[in-house]
Amino acid sequence: MSPPPPNDAIYLDHAATTPVDPAVVEAMLPYFTERFGNPSSIYQLGQESRSALDRSRAAIASVLGCRPSEIVFTSGATEADNLALSGVAWHHRLGASQGNRSHIVTTAIEHSAVLATARWLERQGFDVTYVQCDKEGLVPVEEVAAALKPETCLISVTYANNEVGSIQPIREIGALARDRGIPFHTDAVQAAGSLPLRVDDLNVDLLTLAAHKFYGPKGVGLLYVRKQTPIAYQQHGGGQESGRRGGTENVPLVVGMAVALDQAERGRSGYNAHCATLRDRLLDGLRSAIPEVALNGPAVLGRRLANNANVSLPGIQGETVLLSLDMQGIAASAGSACSVGNSQPSHVLQAMGLSDERIRSSLRFTVGWSNTPQQIDETVDVLVETVERERSLAGVA
After folding, report:
1. Predicted confidence (pLDDT) at residue 266 exceeds the cutoff of 90
2. pTM for this one?
C-alpha cells in the first residue's frame, strides 16, 4: 500500500500517476548505489545488474503469462505505443508489394500516444481507420470488424480508457484479429492493478504498460511482443534488449516496475473493492447534494474501472473548479494528464457525443490506495460549496 501524499493533500488523480510504493523504493535503492554496474559488462558488478534485469523480466512475464523474451523494456508507455504502431506498420510496408498501402484500425478514443502516432503514420502514406465509440465510451466489436480491410496490418484498441474508465471488449476484438491473422495491440496502461493482464486470455499480440500507473517509478514501461509478431524495431545502438532497443537498460527502474507490478497483481481484488467503495461514496455524495450531476461513461456496475468517476456539473467550468479544489488541497483533473496545456476539449467526451457545455463542466476523480472515506466526504463538501459559489458568480440558479 502506498503512502499518503505529503502535506495532508487529498490526491484524487491516480489515473495521471501514482505515488511510488515504499517497497518499490526499497527494491530500487541498491541499484542506484552499490549495485550500479552496467548490465552489459562481463565483470561481477555488471552481472549483478544483468541478474536483476533477468529476475525482473521473469517476474513481469509471470504476471503477463508470457515468455520473458517477449518483453521489451522502454522509457514508458508513450515509447511503447509508438513502437507498437510504427514497428508493425513499417514492417508491413517494407515487406508489402510496391504500391500496397498499409492499413491500421484504431479508435477515436485512444490515448494521445496512439492517436498522434497513427496520425503521423497517415502523413507517411499509411491508411488509418478510427472506429467510433458509443455514448458510454465503449467500442462495438462489430464496428471494428466492419473497419477491417484485406490490407489491414494492425488493430490497436486501448484496454481501459484513461478519461472515463470504459473497459473495452479486448478478448472479443483479439479473437476477431486472430481469426483474420492481424496483429492486435492494446494500451493496457490504466488496466494494470485493476484488470487481468494475461496475454493469452486477452488474445493480444502487443501490450503496453507504464510503471507509474501502478505505484511504480516514472520513466519506465514495457511493450510485450508475442513471438513471431511482425515488427520493425525502431531504436538502434548497442544491441540491448536482444537487439530490439538500443541503450543501456535503466536497471533501478526496471527492478521497481517488476516489484510494483507483482504487488499490483497480488492486491488487485482488494484494490478494486477499496476503490469501488470510495468511488461510489463520492458519486452518492455528489448526487445527493447536486441531483443534476451526470456520470460520463459506462454505468458504475457496467464496464468501468473501479477507481474512475468522470462527472459533469452543469453551470460550472471544470478547470475553474479544479483550481479552487487545488487551493484547498484537493487534486483532481479534467481529463488526460497528457493533455495539460491543450485548450481543446476532450476528444474522448466529444467522441461520446457530449455537448460542448457538458464537456466544459466535466471533472475526473480517480481514487487509490491512499484515499479514505473521510477524504471523500471532505471532497464532496468542498466540491458542493465550490460549485454553488461558481454558479452564483455566473448567475446560474
Report:
1. yes
2. 0.94
Write a three-state SS string for the chain.
CCCCCHHHCEECECCCCCCCCHHHHHHHHHHHCCCCCCCCCCCHHHHHHHHHHHHHHHHHHHHHCCCHHHEEEECCHHHHHHHHHHHHHHHHHHHCCCCCCCEEEEECCCCHHHHHHHHHHHHCCCEEEEECCCCCCCCCHHHHHHHCCCCEEEEECCCECCCCCEECCHHHHHHHHHHHCCCEEEECCCCCCCCCCCHHHHCCCEEEEEHHHCCCCCCCEEEEECCCCCCCCCECCCCHHHHCECCCCCHHHHHHHHHHHHHHHHCHHHHHHHHHHHHHHHHHHHHHHCCCCEECCCCCCCCECCCEEEEECCCCCHHHHHHHHHHCCEECECCCHHHCCCCCCCHHHHHCCCCHHHHHCEEEEECCCCCCHHHHHHHHHHHHHHHHHHHHHHCCC
pLDDT at 397: 56
> Are 254 and 149 within one domain?
yes
Q: Residues 133, 153, 275, 338: which is the catalytic one?
A: 338
Same-domain status, 360 and 237:
no
The answer to whether the CB of 279 falls within 8 A of the CB of 300 is: yes
Annotated active-site residue 338? The verdict is yes
Q: Which range marks the domain in which residue 382 is found? A: 6-20+268-394
pLDDT in tens, 207-255: 999 999 999 999 999 999 999 999 999 988 888 988 899 898 999 999 9
The domain boundary, picked from 266, 291, 322, lies at 266
Contact 363, 280 (CB under 8 A): no
235 and 368 together in one domain: no
Domain assignment present for residue 375? The answer is yes
| β pairing state of 71-74 and 221-225 | antiparallel
> Is 1 inside any structural domain?
no
* pLDDT of 341 strictly over 60: no
CA dihedral 76, 154, 190, 346 (to 10 degrees): 100
Each residue of 57-83: pLDDT tens digit?
A: 999 999 999 999 999 999 999 999 999
Last residue of a domain, one of 266, 282, 308: 266
Q: Model confidence at 98, in pLDDT bands (50, 70, 90)?
A: very low
Same structural domain for residues 383 and 336? yes
